[in-house]
Amino acid sequence: MVKFVNLKSKYEKQTFFIVLLAFAAFSCSKKETPAEKESNTMLEEPKVNVEEQNVSVKVPTPESGLEFINASDCRTCHSDDTKLIGPAYKDVAAKYENTEANRKMLAEKIIKGGQGVWGDIPMAPHADLSREQAEAMAMYVLSLKK
Q: Of 128, 84, 85, 83, nearest to 110 (Cα)?
């Protein structure tokens, strides 16, 4: 038969409780073997933050804009050809001429967000983007005009 320890003082009870919690936490933890760790790392998609990319874009290009789009959350709501939550990039390009004024206006919408032009669903702001990054993204979108 198991005999339980008679804990008399408050200090003994607290110490026993802490030791019990530590034992439970230690026994429930699972260590990955090096092989498991490597296979789990290989399955993850590489994550590139927009902040990690070259923030000082001196001359925006459609190619750099595409890189920034792919590194951000834009593809959650937009695609090149098909309307998802937001308009397709080709629809945006069809609506606006590829001018410096339109690139700046779209860059402002990318950074600050917007609503109403394409329906009631608002576009989330992307305040972590620099003006140059947003202009490069707008340049890519407007380059899709046929």
A: 128
- Give dist(CA 10, CA 107) in Å, integer: 64
69: exposed, middle or buried (C-beta count within 10 Å: 0-12, 13-18, 19+)?
buried
Residue whose tokens read 């890519």 = 140
CA dihedral 48, 135, 85, 112 (to 10 degrees): 100
What's the pLDDT at 12? Answer: 72
CA angle 119, 62, 79 (to 5 degrees): 35
CA–CA separation, 78 and 71 (whole Å): 13
- At 74, the pLDDT band (50, 70, 90 cuts) reads very high
